[in-house]
Design brief:
Length: 277
């Protein structure tokens, strides 16, 4: 099910397998009114930084992130990137080896009102059969510092960095509500007292070692009403009461628990319940 993001996303889709090759949207120079001439779409980060060294009009992006999101219930995983800054006309992202992995620009009416600010990109989420396949999947993006570059509509350059890791939390283990044996969803959950509870996440998905969880996000949705209930809690909280104002008797609800690691990497466990009549 589609879930609400924390504070880091609006969607554009790409392929996880092709991400390291870069997304090319046209081939044009990046030169602007106050830009160093000759910056090309296919330049490496080292080349860009050399050209920007003597530029005074370089500002910082407000936010930049690259994370891994895993659905432990479905057994799939993908990458998400986000940037936010003053109105920009072009934006690029480079991996720790200096290879461009994203190149996007805006034009027309979007550019005429000041350009883009927030950008979220979510890749395809290939399924993995086992942990060996999972580790092969996430190796498509190397660990390390990702570099962000944006050309603003005012003729400045904006840069930012994001530390990317392969530290992915295990999926939260649900305590309640649990379905009866052989059933998909828990039944007869009281609409005025529905509790979602889980064990704290303390290890990585691969079992490689401990992990630092900074919080959890719980999302409850009903397909028919198209309404969602979402709450974020700190790492020490492992129980949430779903607002009785949100739930109705006799309906089926799907829910997700996201464990969020300090780098932003997150793992989802999904389940569902039916409220009593």
């Amino acid at each position: 099910m589609k879930h609400i993001k924390t504070d880091i996303f609006i969607a554009v889709i790409a392929s996880a397998v092709m991400l390291t090759a870069g997304v090319q949207l046209g081939h044009c120079e990046w030169a602007g009114p106050a830009s160093p001439a000759g910056i090309q779409d296919n330049d490496t980060w080292a080349t860009v930084m050399t050209l920007l060294e003597n530029q005074k009009a370089v500002i910082e992006l407000s936010e930049a992130s690259v994370i891994i999101e895993v659905n432990s219930t479905d057994g799939d995983a993908g990458f998400q990137v986000f940037l936010d800054g003053e109105g920009w006309r072009k934006a690029r992202i480079f991996d720790p080896e200096g290879i461009q992995v994203l190149n996007v620009h805006v034009g027309g009416g979007i550019r005429s009102i000041g350009g883009g600010t927030e950008l979220f990109m979510e890749t395809e989420e290939p399924e993995y059969e086992d942990l060996d396949e999972f580790e092969e999947l996430i190796e498509h993006l190397p660990e390390g510092e990702f570099m962000f570059l944006a050309a603003t509509t005012e003729g400045d350059w904006a840069t930012g960095t994001a530390e990317f890791t392969h530290d992915v939390p295990a999926g939260p283990e649900i305590i309640a509500p649990l379905p009866d044996p052989g059933e998909e969803c828990a039944a007869d959950v009281l609409a005025d007292f529905a509790v979602i509870e889980w064990h704290p996440v303390t290890t990585q998905l691969t079992g490689a070692g401990d992990i630092e969880i900074v919080g959890y996000q719980i999302i409850v949705e009903n397909e028919d009403t198209e309404r969602s209930f979402m709450v974020e809690v700190p790492a020490g909280v492992t129980l949430v009461t779903v607002s009785p104002e949100f739930l109705e008797a006799g309906l089926e609800y799907s829910f997700e628990i996201l464990a969020i690691e300090e780098s932003g990497n997150q793992t989802i466990t999904e389940s569902c319940f039916e409220t009593a009549e």
